[in-house]
Amino acid sequence: MTNKDVPPPRSRRERPAKPALTRQGIIDAALAILRAEGLHKVTMRRIAQALDTGPASLYVYVRNTADLHVQILDALLAAVIEPRASEGTWRDQVKQVLTRYLFVLFDYPEIARMTLTMHPSGPNYLSLLEQLLALLKQGGMPDREATWAVDLLLLYATAVAAEHSTRKERGAAAEEDSALVAAITTIDASRHPHLAHLGDELFSGSGPDRFAWAIDVLLSGTLSTPRAATEQEEVCPH
Amino acid sequence: MTNKDVPPPRSRRERPAKPALTRQGIIDAALAILRAEGLHKVTMRRIAQALDTGPASLYVYVRNTADLHVQILDALLAAVIEPRASEGTWRDQVKQVLTRYLFVLFDYPEIARMTLTMHPSGPNYLSLLEQLLALLKQGGMPDREATWAVDLLLLYATAVAAEHSTRKERGAAAEEDSALVAAITTIDASRHPHLAHLGDELFSGSGPDRFAWAIDVLLSGTLSTPRAATEQEEVCPH
DNA sequence: CTTGCGTTACGAACGTGTTCGTGTTATACT
DNA sequence: AGTATAACACGAACACGTTCGTAACGCAAG
Questions:
Q1: What distance in Å separates residue B134's CA from the closest CA in chain A?
Q2: Would you tell me how many other CB atoms lie within 10 Å of the CB of residue A230?
Q3: Which CATH class is domain A10-62?
Q4: Is residue A18's beta carbon less than 7 angstroms from any atom in nucleic acid strand D?
Q5: What is the C-alpha separation between A163 and A179, in angstroms, rounded?
């Protein structure tokens, strides 16, 4: 692994032996920095510094920061996969899995935003998909709907995490929404009757309640909404 | 157009009359650049250059780039609000509004990501909320559920737009997902039976089909899921 | 008219992601 | 063994967002 062979130190820097940059090494260094100093310190330059090299060197193994963050996420997803014993209904189990997924993304909000644009493809993410598919099948959901439902569920959970991302980063959280709250409370009731009537309801309810409700909505909706029964557009793999 | 005629230190005395930086002026300049050169050119430095000043000057009127982008979005939402004649069922109308919303965000993907974390509060966004609330009420949805449903619908549409954001920016689109596709097609069928069986179904269907299906799922699910968080029994709804 | 003061404009600087060109290294081939 | 060649490491640079300190301004009071 660590090629401790000391190469001729005359032309090279007088550095004795550098562990020869690796993609996994970069990801490991990133995870170490993540745990030690937080996500905001996980920058290309900081990682390069930890590996005693320049930022440009990393781009041989990592396409960009998004790519790196996706790898980090897959490592974090190990905490989501933990095979819980089958407790509760399948709906409850879906909620539990998604809640664990949500909490992981809550802790690292930047990654949540990244996940929306770049899907992970690591082993832990695949296990997460598998786990959800199994639960939906257990709930009697047809195959074709289940695949889209998995996508929808994960998209929702990711979006919720991304939505709350700024709040964890900076203490000033309510400040941003307050603009919307203020706009709604001082709204012209003649132009926007519905908003004036039940505008405050928009912000009602706790986070977990809304999340659980939304999952139920997605599951019930999927169970009662068949995919376009028009004709099957079989994807020809050739 | 480099400002090369007034390098002497008597900087401002002889300036003719600069229009005296304004928040609205900054937003207008940003919109002008947006239409002329695209979103990727709408940077603080470019706006400052257009207003013949330095980047730091803008921060008196604009908190940060996110703040600026939110303002831009509200201006763009004017295209979504256009009061269409009541054609089709209320579900179809919801789909139409959300599709218009989606298309606006599709054109400016960076803004979609921003919208997830910073809610707009401008007049056009309020009108959008009002319009959706009215449609849901017209569909017979109870008030309490309708407010949460509006949030859910907009969150979904925004997330979809953000998800496809990278594809429009750079031509290399399929490359990112291809990692997931490759991982699924070459999957170990013993460890992930469900994924191996219907993995390709995950990517089936066209974008609009999935979008329309998801809206139906959200609407039907909301109509059958009361907010009262009473524990729902595991009863297959037949 | 002078003086003082709060507001605003802005040069300079720091840290960021990312790319290019170049020098270095290690492997493969003749 | 000697050499060709591809992969790699990395310094330097560019554009970006954001902040700080300071200089210029407008305006009211003296």
A1: 7
A2: 7
A3: mainly alpha
A4: yes
A5: 16
Hey, which CATH number is domain B23-62, 1.20.210.10, 3.40.50.1000, 1.10.10.10, 1.10.10.60?
1.10.10.60
Q: Which residues in chain A are classed under CATH 1.10.357.10? A: 73-222
Distance in angstroms: CA A57, C1' D8 = 8
Closest nt by CA–C1' to B22: C8
Rank A111-125, B59-73, B146-160 by mean pLDDT and report only the highest. B146-160
What is the rounded (10 degree) CA torsion for A122, A124, A130, A134?
-170
| DSSP conformational letter for A203 | G
Query: Domain B82-223, what fold?
Result: Tetracycline Repressor; domain 2 (1.10.357)
A38 CB below 7 A from strand C atoms? no
| Any strand C atom closer than 7 Å to A8 CB | yes
Among 1.20.1420.30, 1.10.357.10, 3.50.50.60, 2.60.40.2950, name the CATH number for the domain at A73-222: 1.10.357.10
Q: How far is the CA of B121 from the C1' of D13 (A)?
A: 41
B20-62 pLDDT, tens digit per residue, is 678 888 999 999 999 888 888 899 999 998 888 889 989 999 9
- How many Å apart are CA A195 and CA A21, to the nearest integer? 57
Angstrom distance, B20 CA to D13 C1' = 35
Residues of B in contact with A152 (CB under 8 A): 156, 214, 217
Name the residue among A221, A218, A212, A217 with its Cα closest to residue A88.
A212
- Let me know: does B128 contact B81? Beta carbons within 8 Å: yes
User: What is the token pair recorded at B150?
Assistant: 């509006």
